[in-house]
Design brief:
- This protein has 18 helices and 21 strands.
- The protein is α/β, with parallel strands linked by helices and 510 residues long.
- It binds the ligand NC(=O)c1ncn([C@@H]2O[C@H](COP(=O)(O)O)[C@@H](O)[C@H]2O)c1NC=O.
- The ligand NC(=O)c1ncn([C@@H]2O[C@H](COP(=O)(O)O)[C@@H](O)[C@H]2O)c1NC=O binds next to strand 1, helix 2, strand 4 and helix 8.
- Pfam families: AICARFT_IMPCHas, MGS.
- InterPro entries: AICAR_Tfase_dup_dom_sf, Cytidine_deaminase-like, MGS-like_dom, MGS-like_dom_sf, PurH-like.
- One of its GO terms (biological process) is 'de novo' IMP biosynthetic process.
C-alpha cells in the first residue's frame, strides 16, 4: 500500500504551506490544483499535479479541475466495503484520505462596491464544494478541512489518532454548515438580482458573534449571531470600549436605543428600558438633548441604556456618571469623556457609527414559522399631514408632534406618547387598549401634560382618548386617522379647541 494522500486546493492560502509541510512529514503525498501547487512548490514541497490523478488538464479557466471520478471515487469509496474497494482497483483509482479545500471568495466578491454580475458568477465555486461534500459524507474514512483555523488541531489528531473519528465527524458537520452558508449566499444574491422578494423557500444565514452567558432569563441559553452583510451602523459592529460582556437583554435594548437615535438629524439622546424609549430629547447641543431625555423620566432611566448620535464629551459624560446606566452608545467618545466613564466598573461603552443606512429586512419567529417584513421606514418628505380640526397646530405644536411621531413609532403597541419642548414626557407602551396607554402616559406626564402634544401609533376607535387628552390639558394630537368613528374624535377636538393631524400612516409595533 502506498502513502496516504492529501488533496489540497485552496483559495485562501493562509497557513497552507506550513500545514502541507506537516502533512508531508506525517507521510502524506500531497496532490494540488494549479495555484495551490505553485505556492507549495515555491515553498520547496513536492506536489503531485491534479492532472496526474485525473489524466485530464484543468480546463475552462479553472471551471473544471477536480470534477473527475478519479477524485470523487477516491473520496467516496468506503474502505470497509469490499465492493467499493474492488471497484477502485478495477478502475486503477487510489483513495484520497485528507481534503483541504476552501472556496472561491464569493462573499467577499459580492461585498465589493460595484461588483459585476459576471464577477460574482465566476466566483461561485463548483469543484471545491463537490470535494468538500464528498469527503464530509465519507468522514468515517476521510478527514476534511475547510477552515485554516483547524490546521493545528488536525495535525494533532493525525499524530495521535485516538480521537480522529470524532474529529472527522465534527469537521464534516462544519463542512456542511460552510457549504450551506456558501450556497445560501449564492441563492440570496441571485434571488435579489432576479428581484424575487419572497421566494418559495427562504434560507437565512448568520455567523456566530458570541455565545452569551444566558438568554432573557438565567435558565435560557443564548448566543448572538451576525448577518454576513450587517450595516456598519448596527449593533453587531459596535466596538465595546469598556465594561462587562453584553447580555441578551442588553443587546435587545441597545439595538432599540440605537435604532431610535438614528431617527434624528439634530443632537439627540435616547434612553431605553425593556426596548421602549423612556426618555428622548433633542436639542442644539448633546447636553441639552441629554438633559431633556433625563428629565423626561428621571426614575425609569436608572439602569437604562442611553444612545447618542453625536460624540459624547466631558460635559455629557459628567452627567452620565451621576446615575447607574447599563450601556452608553455613541458614534465616539472624547478622551476626557472616556476618562470619566471608565471610572465606573459596571457601565458598558459602545462605539458605533450612527446613520440610517439601507432599510433592513425584519425577521421574527413564531412557533413553527418565520415572519418577514420590510423595516418600518417612511420618508418624512412624503408624509401627509392633514389637519382635520378647525384649529391649525401652532409652530411649536408642529415641532413637538413631528418629534413625538418619530419616537412613538418605536414604542410597543398600543402606544401613546406625550411630548413638549422637544422632550418626551409620558410613554404609554404595550397596552391592550388605547385609552389605557393614554392614561399611563398622562399620569406619568402629570402637570407637564398641560399644553403638550399626543401621538398615537394607530387610529382612535372612539373619542375616549381625546376626552382623556383634554382632561390632561393636551393641545394637539397626531394620529394616523382612518377609524369609522373619526368624526366623533374630530368633533370632540373642535369642541375643546384641540388641533388634530392625520398622517395616514400607522406604526404598530408588536
Ligand atoms: N472546478 C473545479 O474542478 C475546482 N476544483 C477546485 N476548485 C477550487 O479552486 C480553488 C483553488 O485553485 P488554485 O489551486 O488554482 O488556486 C479552490 O478554491 C477550490 O475550491 C475548483 N474551482 C471551481 O469550481
Amino acid at each position: 500500500m502506498g502513502n496516504k494522500r492529501a488533496l489540497i486546493s485552496v483559495s485562501n492560502k493562509t497557513g497552507v504551506i506550513n500545514f502541507a509541510k506537516q502533512l508531508t512529514e506525517l507521510g502524506y503525498d500531497v496532490i494540488s490544483t494549479g495555484g495551490t501547487k505553485k505556492a507549495l512548490e515555491e515553498a520547496g514541497l513536492n506536489v503531485i499535479s491534479i492532472s496526474e490523478i485525473t489524466h485530464f488538464p484543468e480546463i475552462l479557466d479553472g471551471r473544471v479541475k477536480t470534477l473527475h471520478p478519479n477524485v470523487h471515487a477516491g473520496l467516496l469509496a468506503k474502505r470497509d466495503d469490499n465492493h467499493h474497494m474492488a471497484a477502485l482497483k478495477e478502475q486503477a483509482i487510489e483513495t484520497i484520505d485528507l481534503v483541504v479545500v476552501n472556496l472561491y471568495p464569493f462573499k467577499e466578491t459580492i461585498a465589493q462596491e460595484g461588483v459585476s454580475f459576471e464577477d460574482a458568477i465566476e466566483n461561485i465555486d463548483i469543484g471545491g464544494p463537490a470535494m468538500l461534500r464528498a469527503a464530509a459524507k465519507n468522514h468515517q474514512d476521510v478527514t476534511v478541512v475547510v477552515d485554516p483555523a483547524d490546521y493545528g488541531t488536525v495535525v494533532d489528531h493525525l499524530k495521535d489518532s485516538s480521537s480522529l473519528k470524532e474529529l472527522n465527524r465534527k469537521l464534516a458537520a462544519k463542512v456542511y454548515r460552510h457549504t450551506a452558508q456558501y450556497d445560501a449566499l449564492v441563492a440570496n444574491y441571485l434571488t435579489e438580482e432576479a428581484e424575487e422578494k419572497f421566494p418559495e423557500t427562504k434560507t437565512v444565514t448568520y455567523e456566530r458573534q458570541q455565545t452569551l452567558r444566558y438568554g432573557e432569563n438565567p435558565h435560557q441559553s443564548a448566543a448572538f449571531y451576525k448577518h454576513p452583510f450587517a450595516e456598519n451602523s448596527s449593533l453587531v459592529n459596535a466596538k465595546q470600549l469598556h465594561g462587562k460582556e453584553l447580555s441578551y437583554n442588553n443587546i435587545q435594548d441597545a439595538d432599540s436605543a440605537l435604532t431610535i437615535v438614528k431617527e434624528f438629524e439634530e443632537p439627540a439622546a435616547v434612553a431605553v428600558k425593556h426596548t421602549n424609549p423612556c426618555g428622548v430629547g433633542i436639542g442644539h447641543t448633546l447636553k441639552e438633548a441629554y438633559d431633556r431625555a433625563y428629565n423626561a423620566d428621571p426614575v425609569s432611566i436608572f439602569g437604562g441604556i442611553v444612545a447618542f448620535n453625536r460624540e459624547v464629551d466631558e460635559v455629557v459624560a459628567q452627567d452620565l456618571s451621576q446615575i447607574f446606566l447599563e450601556i452608553v452608545i455613541a458614534p465616539s467618545f472624547t478622551e476626557e469623556a472616556l476618562n470619566i466613564l471608565t471610572q465606573k466598573k459596571n457601565i458598558r461603552l459602545l462605539e458605533v457609527p450612527v446613520d440610517q443606512g439601507e432599510p433592513q429586512e425584519k425577521l421574527s419567529t413564531v412557533s413553527g414559522g418565520l415572519l418577514i417584513q420590510d423595516e418600518d421606514r417612511y420618508v418624512e418628505s412624503e408624509m401627509q399631514y392633514d389637519v382635520v380640526t378647525d384649529r391649525e397646530p401652532s409652530d411649536e405644536e408642529w415641532t413637538n408632534m413631528k418629534f413625538a411621531w418619530k419616537v412613538m413609532k418605536h414604542v410597543k403597541s398600543n402606544a401613546i406618547l406625550l411630548a413638549t419642548e422637544k422632550q418626551t414626557i409620558g410613554v404609554g407602551a404595550g397596552q391592550m387598549n388605547r385609552v389605557g396607554a393614554a392614561n399611563i402616559a398622562i399620569e406619568q406626564a402629570g402637570e407637564k401634560a398641560k399644553g403638550a402634544v399626543m401621538a398615537s401609533d394607530a387610529f382612535f376607535p372612539m373619542d375616549d382618548t381625546v376626552e382623556a387628552a383634554h382632561q390632561a390639558g393636551i393641545r394637539a394630537i397626531i394620529q394616523p386617522g382612518g377609524s369609522k368613528r373619526d368624526a366623533d374624535s374630530i368633533k370632540k377636538c373642535n369642541e375643546y379647541g384641540i388641533a388634530m393631524v392625520f398622517t395616514g400612516v400607522r406604526h404598530f409595533k408588536h
